[in-house]
Amino acid sequence: MTVESSSTRLEALDWIRGIASMWVVLYHVDLTLQKAKYFGLPPLSPVTAVGYRGVELFFVLSGFIMARSYARGAAAGWHDAIDFAIRRIFRIFPLYLIVSIPLFVVAASAGIGRPPADVALDASLFFKNLFLLPRDDLSTFIPVSAWTLSHELMFYAVFLIWFFAPRLFIAALTLWAGLSLVLTLLDVRPAGWQMQTNALNAYFLAGAACSMLGRLGRPRHLWVLGLAAAMLLSAAISLEAASRAAGIAAHACYAAAFCLIVYCLSFGTPSLPRFIEAPMRYLGRISYGIYLVNYPLVVVIALVCIKAGLHAYAVPLVMLGAIGATILVSDLLHRFVERPGIALGRRVFRKPLSVARQEVIR
């Protein structure tokens, strides 16, 4: 089996994070430009119109990383399970709270970015947001993109089973994904359990299954799989654009395409000029911040353009302004919140991890 260096694998994962996060940014720019209360413009392109699919790419990557970095040996027990949970908490919550709490205060006091009018911004909702509790109404998350973190936390909860019974973890993940898919196909949405049974949960299983393919070694003609991923992704976007809704065929194409993308890049990034490689790695490193803050910043930039009467230049100004502001804010959050939080999580138990397992905390 071909074993790549840790740095090569991490660079590849950063590429995927960077691509997925910027795809989400472009989607929010497109969505904001389309809304009648802002500019009422037509969609920019089929690619940006489905940029929310970057979330599913994140889920596939998350499942892949967990299975590849942890699920390689025997069950580890309570100490490793607690160590894993602490690292995940310090990876997610410091940056999330720094962003979420001020936005909640602004929404409650000034009404900017608040959920629908019939939703009370009370202590109950504050604590639901504080702990990222799943719920049926995704619009009550502040920032609204934080709903995906609830899916991540649910996956982490299932993954904890691996530390005691690896086979039971595989069975539980398969059952969870299968139940979510079946209920979605039947259009059954249990009240109070819609997030827990959403078809998006199956993307974690797809990523975990994808990691198992990597154990077979590097394919001789990797470019063929890369081409297949591009074709599947194009087919999925076309299917969704044609029907204005994603059917099971589109979901299958997206899942297969994302798995192939992650699988191919797990063997290392292609040789490209440094002026391309460096920005991709950089965007990957700050991708968590990008994902959390981009939508509020897109809205702010759009409102500034409206106030300034720059409707004719809305597309370039909102796009460039939002991308620039998002990268700047995300960089600051990465330097002063995210990295210190990760470092603190590493020191809590002070248990050394193998190089392979350290990938998961990135």
TrEMBL record:
Pfam family, one: Acyl_transf_3
Keyword entries, A-Z: Acyltransferase, Membrane, Transferase, Transmembrane, Transmembrane helix
GO molecular function ontology, one term from the record: acyltransferase activity, transferring groups other than amino-acyl groups
Keyword rRNA-binding included in the entry's annotation: no
InterPro entries tied to this protein: Acyl_transf_3_dom, Acyltransferase_3
Regions crossing the membrane: 49-71, 92-112, 153-186, 222-239, 245-265, 286-304, 310-329
Domain named Acyltransferase: residues: 11-334
Protein name according to UniProt: Acyltransferase
Gene Ontology BP terms: polysaccharide biosynthetic process
Any one cellular-component term (Gene Ontology): membrane
Key word Chloroplast present: no
PANTHER family: ACETYLTRANSFERASE, BLR2367 PROTEIN
